[in-house]
Amino acid sequence: MPTKRLSSSAAKQGRTPVSALAITVAAALGTLAMPAFSADAKPATKEDTITVVGGSNTAQQESAWGPVGTYVAKRSATGTKTDTQLVKTPQSVSVVTREQMDILQPTSVKEALGYTPGVMVGSRGSSNVYDAVYIRGFGSVNQNEYLDGLKLQGDYFNEASIDPYFLERAEVLRGPSSVLYGKSSPGGIVSLVSKRPTNEPIREVQFKMGTDSLFQTGFDFSDALDEEGKYAFRLTGLAKDANDQQNMAKVKRYAVAPSFSWQPDDHTNLTLYSYLQNDPNMGYYGWLPMQGTVQPAPYGKLPANFNEGEKSNFYSRQTRMFGYSFYHDLNDTWTVRQNLRYMQLHTNQNNVYGNGVAADNVTLNRNYIVSNERLNNFSVDTQAQAKFATGQVEHTLLSGVDFMRMSNDIEGGWGIASTLNLANPQFGNYTKGALNRTSKVDGQQQIGIYMQEQAEWNNWILTAGTRYDWAKSTVEDRVADSYSKQKDHQSTNRIGLNYLFDNGISPYVSYAQSFEPNVGAAYGGKAFVPSKGEQYEAGLKFMPKDKPVSATIAIYQLTKSNNLVTDVQHANEGWYQQQTGKIRSRGLELEGKAALNANVNLLASYTYTNAEYTEDTTNKGNTPAIIPKHMASLWGDYTFHETALSGLTFGAGVRYTGSSFGDEANTFKVPASTVWNTVLKYDLARFNLPGSSIALNVNNLFDKQYVSSCFATYGCFWGAERQVVATATFRF
Questions:
Q1: pLDDT above 70 as % of the chain
Q2: For the segment 570-620, what is each residue's pLDDT rounded down to a tens digit?
Q3: Is the pLDDT of residue 36 over 70?
Q4: Cβ distance 313 to 279 under 8 Å?
Q5: Are 62 and 133 contacting, i.e. CB atoms less than 8 angstroms apart?
Q6: Cα(662)–Cα(623) distance, rounded to whole angstroms?
């Protein structure tokens, strides 16, 4: 929705001709599309923080779905599905704003979360094929990522990935979230908010060049279409071409995001959007053995750009989305909202990959995989919100029903490929064994009804919610000529209490639940029941109303029960699983963000995670792989004003990731790593180009070679090498 309604005169004054260069870039990419709005947007309330957006001198109120203007967001809807102050949310939430992304220039969502506590972003090393992150010790590739309030439901290798250039915010809700979102990992979710139409003119063209032959261009246009500001549009696009860090792998992306908003008055908004993204080459997605990475090998260490696959490896993805967002204030009490999206994903791959070394520690065993997948997903979330008072108690009552249906048609299989001599690798002359064919249709469906109460009395804020879900999973196996269906139903609850002091300090406590369906059956044919998450959390938030400052501390205990483990009792009769496993994660998280003045911005975080298999047939007492016990980060930037260096920004940051176990059996460890990043940016306002800038970002400044994580003895990942990227952003 438009982020601000301008008067007729203001709208007229804001219009200037778009440059020929901008038109040329837009035309070159105008056949593609990408979503550019958030779901539940509505006008901000009187409690909102005043910010300056998009280089304009016009003050604007912050909403949970709109721009912020600084690194410090004060409102979010991720933790409540309502426009709520973060200081009043009884759960840990982090917000990465557009301003933070503009200074750091991340190439993926997971990179955008690199300075966020509780989030392990290095689980797949330098690869950006998927936004694989672990939150509070739990994770799965992309399965807990949401865009504008609706889940980006994927399956098998078919997962969506959104470029951060199209985002207004990237938010993390840590801990169980099923009471609002249904089936999900207990660790938390990643919630993305798209750029949306605005009545304030935006005309931006951006160019990038960097290491690995990176060339990228993007554009972002938005404006009102009439003098009254009832109609607005936004068009954001991007084209990217680069070599991946690993030899023989390339990255290409073309995307554009048109959206249109109709707002006849301050009480009604309808935003239509479409999305089309083409990734002809997604880059490298493989792994290396611990020999030659974590541990020395007879040939020494493998280089960080080593690719164990072949030049013929192929991995592509096409993404299409269409949908709308609608809200209407029925009266001063009731508001209705609906968010709907249809998504298509087509992923195609033919890859040779490593599968561990032979006894000589030199010969790499390899497999190959072929997969052609077509996914269709439909999601809709309908909400009714009431704001009213009973005596001295103010209520925000939310009720809703959501529905999701996904179908993924998979054709492919896997087989054995010829080995590779790691001491003297010879590529191009390889063979493939017989294909073990896969031909099936995976289906998922979920219906959920939920209610939430946010009650405020004096300085007390009570948040309580409940939800009931019906979930169904199906598999049509065309090879085995079989059809299986599994139905689950589950209730989840959450309750939290805040006390808000007048100075912006808010202590809180909360309890939350989550669930995840498990497909399959134990020995004897009994279907698996959903795994359950349960969390106790306490924390302290400091967010003063009149300052762009935010500080939080949270402690928690999170338990996942009904976890699938190996059935050793019936090992002689085949490989089976049973649901006696339990994983416990305890931790501490600290986060601070501040725009100390017009010159200085600071980001700081610390994470302590103590995860353990408390009940397991083979791994009891062990720590899950990939999860470091300690993580920390620090970023600061300084902008010169009213000096000879006016307009110059210098920033530097450091990220520390502690050691982690490389496999579930805890047989080896991945060493800790420390990586430094810097940026040098210059504002071109003195050259009569307000809002324009040139910047130089250097990631991994000292070019440290490090292993970011391992999940098994055969699966390790090199972290990203030094990357130097020059960015020129022009606003007209």
A1: 91
A2: 877 777 888 889 999 999 999 999 998 889 999 999 999 999 999 999 999
A3: no
A4: no
A5: no
A6: 10
The terminus-to-terminus CA distance of the chain in angstroms comes to 22
Residues 617-659: pLDDT tens digits? 999 999 999 999 999 999 999 999 988 899 999 999 999 999 9
Residue 258 CA to residue 111 CA, distance in Å, equals 25
For 374-402, what is the HEC assignment?
EEEEEEEEEEEEEEEEECCEEEEEEEEEE
DSSP 142: S
- Which pTM does this prediction carry? 0.90
φ, ψ of residue 186 in degrees (nearest 5): -70, -20
Angle at CA 27, nearest 5°, toward 25 and 31?
Answer: 120
Distance between CA atoms of 126 and 141, rounded to whole angstroms? 15
d(CA 412, CA 408): 13
Check if the beta carbon of residue 516 is closer than 8 Å to that of residue 529: no
Most distant CA pair in the chain, distance: 81
Question: Please, are residues 532 and 538 in contact by the beta-carbon 8 Å criterion?
Answer: no
Complete DSSP assignment for 63-107:
-TTS--SSS---EESTTTSS-EEGGG-SS-EEEEEHHHHHHH--S
Nearest to 671 by CA among 631, 707, 722, 714: 707
The identity of residue 656, as a single letter, is Y
* pLDDT band at 708; cut points 50, 70, 90: very high
Tell me the one-letter amino acid at 102.
Answer: D
Cα separation values, 669 from 336, 394, 624, Å? 52, 52, 12
| Structural element, H or E, at residue 110 | helix 109-112
- Please answer whether residues 70 and 97 qualify as being in contact, where contact means their C-beta atoms are separated by less than 8 angstroms: yes
Report pLDDT for 2. Answer: 42
Q: How far apart are CA 290 and CA 287, in angstroms?
A: 10
Residue 569 — very low, low, confident or very high, per pLDDT cuts 50/70/90?
confident
CA neighbours closer than 13 Å in the CB half-sphere of residue 710: 30
CA angle 444, 445, 449 (to 5 degrees): 150
Which stretches within 329-480 are classed as H helix? none
Classify domain 8-731 at the CATH topology level. Maltoporin; Chain A (2.40.170)
Please answer whether residues 83 and 63 qualify as being in contact, where contact means their C-beta atoms are separated by less than 8 angstroms: yes
What 3-state class would DSSP assign to 31? coil
Tokens of 647: 């307009």
CA-nearest of 185, 196, 177, 170 to 89 is: 177
Distance CA(240)–CA(69), nearest Å, equals 27
Strand, coil or helix: what is 573?
A: helix
Question: Residue 582 in contact with residue 564, Cβ under 8 Å?
Answer: no
CB 415 within 8 A of CB 434: yes
Question: Nearest 5 degrees, angle CA 79-CA 158-CA 370?
Answer: 155
Amino acid at 284: Y
| pLDDT of 142 | 56
Of the candidates 502, 701, 533, 711, the one whose C-alpha atom is nearest the C-alpha of residue 623 is 711
Separation CA 403–CA 527 (nearest Å):
24
| Tokens at 656, concatenated | 């520390």
Spell out the domain ranges in the chain: 8-731
Q: Find all residues with CB under 8 Å of 245, minimum gap 6, and list them.
A: 126, 212, 284, 304, 305, 718, 720, 721
SS3 call for 616: coil
**CA pseudo-torsion sign 62, 65, 71, 73:** positive
Residue 146's SS3 state is strand
CB contact at 8 A, 632 and 668: no
Q: Which residue, 114, 181, 115, is CA-closest to 144?
A: 181
Dihedral sign (CA 26, 31, 34, 39)? positive
pLDDT of 94-122, one tens digit each?
Answer: 999 999 999 999 999 999 999 999 999 99
Residue 34 has pLDDT above 80, yes or no: no
